[in-house]
Specification:
This protein folds into two domains: 93 residues, no CATH class; 46 residues, no CATH class. Helices cover 43% and strands 9% of the residues. Helix 2 crosses helix 3. The radius of gyration is 17 Å and the shape is globular. It starts with 5 loop residues before the first helix and ends with a helix.
């Protein structure tokens, strides 16, 4: 589990978590072992959770982590209080071929800098939110 910079996480307007919850992130195995399937990755996450004696958790899965979080929840529903999926979809990809008009506009646009995309995805249009997003990206790349 990697401790995350609370300032980085809390810069997202929707993620003011530090005062209410312990935040951790499970990174892929650093033992050199390559986990070959989503199922193995979910089993690895469950073993890690049990090793820490965690009885309940809120699982947040982003992108491929969403697949892992879904499998983890199927395998160990007793451990999961809430499942939060971001930027992910169903395992088979059904219904993923067509994006909403809003998503088509965001992901189809040209950006001067590639990271400008993330400002559109994770932050709202008002100047204050966009400024918070730019500060977040600055912190992210200053590490």
């Amino acid at each position: 589990m990697a401790n995350r910079d609370q300032r980085g996480l809390n810069s997202f307007p929707c993620c003011r978590l530090g005062a209410r919850a312990q935040i951790g992130a499970l990174e892929p195995s650093s033992s050199g072992e390559v986990l070959a399937s989503i199922e193995e990755m979910a089993q690895h996450a469950a073993a890690f959770t049990e090793a820490l004696s965690i009885k309940k958790l809120d699982a947040l899965g982003f992108s491929m982590g969403g697949f892992i979080a879904q499998q983890f929840t199927i395998d160990r529903p007793d451990l999961v209080r809430k499942l939060i999926l971001v930027g992910t979809g169903p395992r088979s990809g059904e219904g993923m071929a067509s994006l909403t008009p809003e998503a088509q506009e965001i992901f189809g646009a040209q950006y001067d800098a590639p990271d400008e995309l993330w400002l559109r995805v994770f932050f709202t249009p008002p100047k204050q939110s966009q400024a918070a997003g730019r500060k977040y990206l600055e912190r992210l790349y200053s590490v």
